[in-house]
Amino acid sequence: MMRRDLLTLAAVALALIAWLGWQTRPQTAADGRLSTSGLLNDAPESFRQVTGPRPFSFPADHAAHPGYRNEWWYFTGNLQGPGGGRWGFQFTLFRFELDRAPRPESAWSADAVWMAHLALSDVEGRVFHQAERFARGALGLAGATEDRWWLRDWQVTRDGDRFELTAAAGTFGLDLAMTAVRPVVRQGEAGYSRKGPQPGNASHYYSISRLEATGEVRVDGRAVSVEGLAWLDREWGSSQLADDLAGWDWFSLQLDDGRDVMVYRLRTDQGEASRFSAGKVIYPDGTSRTLGPDDFNAKPQRRWRDTEGNTWPLDWTVTIPSEDLSLAVSARFDDQRWRGAVSYWEGAVGVRDADSGKSLGRGYLELSGYGE
Amino acid sequence: MRLLFQSSRRFFRRHPGQLVLALTGMAAGVAVMTGVALMRDVLIESLDGAADALAGRDSVRVSAPDGPLDEDLFRKLALQQGSPPLTPVLRQRVTVGEQRIELLGIDPFSGGGRGLLPPDLLADLLASPEAAAANASTLERLGLAAGEELTVSLGDRKLELELVGPLPAGRELDDRLLMDIAALQAATGRQGELSWIDAPAAASAWLRERLPDSLELGSAAQRRDAAARLTEGMRANLSAMGLISLAVGLFVIFSVLSFLLVQRRRSIAMLRAVGVTSGRITALLLIETAVLAGLGALVGLALGTLLAEGLIGLVRVPVAELYGLLAPAGVQPNVGLYAFVWLTAVGTALVSVAGLLGEARRIPPGRILRQPPPEPRRRLAGVIAALLLLGTSVAVVLVSRSLPVAFAALFLALGGFALLAPELGVRALSALRRIAPASLPGRALALLLAGQKRIRPALAALSLALALATGLAMMVLGFRAAVDDWIDRLLRADSYVTASQGGLEPATVERVATLPGIAETSSARRVTVSDGRQLIAYDLPPRAWAGFEWLAGDGPAAFEGFRAGEAVVVSEPLARRDRIGVGDQVRLDTPAGERRFPVAAVYRDYASERGSIAIHAPLYRRLYDDRRRDSLGLYYSGSVIDEETLADQLHAIDPDLQLTSRESVRETTLAVFDRTFRISWALAALVAVIAVIALVSALLAMGLERRRDYATLRALGLTRGRLHALVVCQTAGLALAAALVAVPLSIAIHLGLSLVIQPRAFGWSLPLSWPLTPPALMLPLALLCGLLAGLYPAWRIGRRDPAPELKAE
């Protein structure tokens, strides 16, 4: 009897304590992440669609193309320091045009939102430095003209074939001068790059596949002189991706024999390569050859599991029989994963001969749709 | 010990009512204390919620000392090399009916606020210029769902908003709607303006190097301090109420425990007879008290949390109205606060029963007492102690000027009164009895006086609670009369003109002054100067000057000095806070450097606790190069003027102009005043409820103790109905006696609050006033409560069969 009363008493006290404890729970705000394919598939009809080739004109096409849903300026590259230190870098400006809504009468009224990604892969230290910024396309906070692409103090200026990049974030930064040693190559069919069956599932896409880069990278106040090769991709469109795509695997490889290879494998929801996967081989003389889905094969060889439990294929075999290439492409190190508003993997890779293991070059790999 | 616990358990099982009463008393006292502590926290910790949510907890803020920032500053800073994440904010205060809310114009792509907005919500916010995002509790309070429309008032303009949400944000964004900054600028016509820019604390040095001198860079701690300082007086008052309720709650506990002791006198005597030592009995009583108080305090913590959630609105509204600060709409309890309140409550309960322990130890073994032991003659000592406490409190108030000391003195004085109250109450009861000693009420009171030991704690609790509620009411009414009188004197103009946005331009002022029917105008410009003081520049015609009530330095000489721009006048709170008087110098930091002016006079002012310096407007315009006015007073040339026509004429000059009549300014002021004191009324009512619990418990205790007497009376032929009447007469008599004692005490409390606490908490004095309505109402109300509170004990006592009670011997 006594025991039962004690138990009742204790239960009441515990219930009260539990309720009070619940009252003291901290309140947390949620964070949100953007979906990569969500950013690229749907666009209202008011946006201009890419439905066929168009003549490119330079330098005018280096500037932004209003009217399209999205556009990017995309530098990647592999750099070497004096003591054999190796670095990968990425600098990207994304422009997302906003839906046509009535624009308020204010200097802050924006037609677009800009996002910039800056990353530095310290291969020896196996550290992936990353920084993300946003700005509205207003007040001159971000923009892209023929010879200047910027978001706040991150910027690229262009003078002829020479591009100067300056960007720093907290503990790391880089200053690079990059000079194009290949002409502009029009991807797909004269720059018209189809990515799905619907009209509009396409982009205008051009690249400069080889730029010689010199400059310095800075980490934690220490500056290192570097030189190496960079790659520039430019692309714009409105609803590039078909609805049934889960993501893509994109390779840009610069081989020691002078050939540059770009291939992308669009993955369907079933995990298979879409028939709109494509590529390009660019020869030292600037000429190029388009690769169709049957001209190459990219096969994952090793997967890496990140802390959130997503798996990313980081070692690949890429074969292009017509070029007599069988390439083992592998990440310089595993964790080159973006953890900002968009979850993707973008990192420096080494390229070897798949059979002999002999080093053939370097490049960049982009994986999307694995971490959403 | 097991035997002891079993006896204790058996007792409570047989008398669950007593268990409930003890728990209720404790819970009620602790609930009010907890509720008050939680509301206080809201007034300190969370006032800066918007910055916490948008830019992180320890952000620094760039702002202009007076007025908005130019958005170009943001552009320049953001584009510089190494720029930190900057969070630009445009704030617009608006109202929805009575409710005040803030529209915060933000740039979701700058600074650290991006995490606030999930992608879908961000898209919704950018999709329409009317979109405004709210958190769940704000939507709930507005009674609207995402997707619905909301009309907010900005002066006499209306803005249509389309709600999106809910924002996944906590309390810090209560009653704050997020809008895109472009949309808010356009909707309010505030293009080019920012209210402030927040940045991470680490960016201070970078910003300091680049900011022009005219701008301020303040830390989060400074902002929190400022907010805490603003609400200091209000918090102090809340704390005092919380402690008082706990004190009254403790009287209840004491009363209930002493009652339990009475009831168990017989079983304790038996336990002692079977060899239980008095030490064990003491331990049992202490453990019992700890368990009862601990459990009651837990219930009190829970009730207090609910109470604070319910009453927080009464605190938020005045804080928003008086200080322009939006507090969260809910409280955020923490473990530390709960633990502190719980330990305080249980600790004081244990201390308060110490007196009872002695009595329990003195119960001799085996004897079943028919009477309680004779009452010790220690009353003189009590009176002396009471007088000592009262004397100390007066001395302390005279010696120190600080507010906490004044509160401590108030408590000493209340303690003194608590010691005196039973003595005075018993005398009041005897006096009442003597009116008609032979009647039923007279006999009832005589019986009551025979068991006066039991009614003493109840008398103290009851008279203290009644006096506190009444004294508080007197102070509030006196204060209200003072404010009414002050505003009535001050408002000399026939009507007032303000602009819904920004101030009035000089050209506008000139055009208004030349409108037909306007004889004269006065003007005021309020600015906060760099050291945080408020400066008011007045253009005053002589009759407006006459509206001031001068507390020091009146006379034509002061007016001459002021009008000549040679001297300034200061408000009472400023004079008190900075300890300056007539003839002292005040320093003004002007753009042209530091200037000093003598103080010509001190005026009464209830507008700002921080106080203000009044300066002649032409002098101000010369020193600060600011030609705007915030408001104009219009003096009509004829006695009658058609205010509708006048309003139309003003709108023709500038659609932003608003005409407010003298009467409506006065009404608004008093309405704000009334809303400020709603929380005091609510707490006073709670204290009164606890007092009623004290009353009931005391009467039950007494009834049980005197049940043999009641049984004798019944055996002698007293009918059940007459017995009921007897008991009800006793409760009513007790309540009336307590009320009579409370009358002088309430006047003393009123004087203490008005003359000591108010000037120290807020800086202003109140003219001596004697609002007698509250005590006049309190007497009949207390009598009524006494009558009602007697019904249950009467029923309980009347139901008993007299025979067993008589056989007990």
Account of the protein in words:
The complex is a heterodimer of chains A (372) and B (809). Chain A has a single domain, classed as AttH-like domain (AttH-like fold, Beta Barrel). Helix content of chain A is 8%, strand content 51%. Chain A is globular. In chain A, strands 1, 2, 3, 4, 5, 6, 7, 8, 9, 10, 11, 12 and 13 form a 13-stranded antiparallel beta sheet that branches. Chain A has a nine-stranded antiparallel beta sheet with strand order 17-16-15-14-22-21-20-19-18, with no helix packed on it. In chain A, strand 1 (70-80) and strand 2 form a beta hairpin. With 372 residues, chain A is mainly beta. Chain B is of the alpha+beta class and 809 residues long. Chain B folds into four domains: 1-47 and 231-369, no CATH class; 59-227, no CATH class; 393-404 and 414-491 and 664-809, no CATH class; 502-655, no CATH class. Helices cover 61% and strands 15% of the residues of chain B. In chain B, the strands form four sheets. In chain B, strands 12, 13, 14, 15, 16, 17, 18, 19, 20 and 21 form a ten-stranded mixed beta sheet that branches. A six-stranded mixed beta sheet of chain B has the order 8-4-3-10-1-11, sandwiched between helices. Chain B has a three-stranded mixed beta sheet with strand order 5-7-6. In chain B, a hairpin with a 5-residue loop joins strand 13 and strand 14. In chain B, helix 2 (16-44) packs parallel to helix 12 (278-323) and helix 18 runs antiparallel to helix 29 (773-799). Chain B starts with a helix and ends with a helix. In chain B, 47% of the residues are buried. The mean pLDDT of chain B is 82. Chains A and B meet through helix 1 and strand 4 of A and helix 1, helix 4, helix 5, helix 7 and helix 12 of B.
